[in-house]
Specification:
With about 200 residues, the protein is mostly beta strands. It has three helices and 13 strands. It folds into two domains: about 100 residues, Jelly Rolls (Sandwich); about 90 residues, TusA-like domain (Translation Initiation Factor IF3, 2-Layer Sandwich). It has a five-stranded antiparallel beta sheet with strand order 1-2-9-4-7, covered by helices on one side. The longest helix has 13 residues.
């Protein structure tokens, strides 16, 4: 049994939205997403269906080009694999639940293209995407520079959990295949236990 007081966990950051992981299990993840007015979560998708509960504030939730207003006490859901994003109109807090069977995509590998994403949002979006992976799941990260600082940060906050392999290495486009090789608290062989970090 796990108990959380969501009102006590809400924490805003002025430079970017703040996703705080509460539960991260295979096929079941919960995070608390705190956003200042004017902040946005860039478009992305998850392998599982997602349900978003508005705990505080007012946001617009988009599935592709279609938007809906979401205010305190309201909930919206989106199917697995569907691109979605969020814009905050006032200081807001959302409880995001990703649960259920991932969409079957045969051998297709999802992509996270950061080239058009503002720099302050890039690392949080990568960590959110990575934290949404199940064991052995993979995605391709595409960026316009070699993301070595991101690699170092991931090794520090999620030690032993990720395998990086360069598919394309510049000079203008970098493509890195990132595979989850261990879950938080369940390290791959030869790695120490990773603290349950939130980004």
């Amino acid at each position: 049994m796990r108990k959380h007081n969501l009102n006590e966990l809400i924490e805003y950051k002025d430079n970017a939205f703040y996703p705080k992981v509460l539960i991260n299990e295979p096929g079941y993840r919960i995070l608390l997403l705190s956003m200042r007015a004017g902040q946005a979560v860039p478009e992305h998708s998850t392998p599982e269906p997602v349900t978003v509960y508005a705990i505080r504030g007012h946001v617009t939730f988009y599935e592709g080009p279609v938007g809906c207003e979401l205010r305190t006490g309201e909930v919206v859901s989106v199917d697995s694999g569907r691109p979605h994003r969020v814009d905050a109109h006032e200081d807001s807090a959302l409880l995001v639940v990703a649960a259920g069977k991932p969409q079957v995509t045969s051998d297709r590998i999802s992509e996270l293209d950061l080239r058009d994403v503002a720099r302050p949002f890039r690392h949080p979006l990568v960590f959110q995407t990575f934290d949404g992976l199940g064991l052995r799941d993979v995605f391709d990260l595409i960026t316009d520079h070699d993301p070595m600082p991101l690699h170092t940060q991931m090794d520090a906050t999620r030690p032993g959990q990720a395998n990086w392999a360069y598919i394309e290495r510049g000079p203008d486009v970098f493509r890195i295949r990132i595979r989850r090789i261990a879950l938080a608290g369940r390290p791959a062989p030869g790695h120490p236990v990773a603290p349950f970090a939130s980004q």
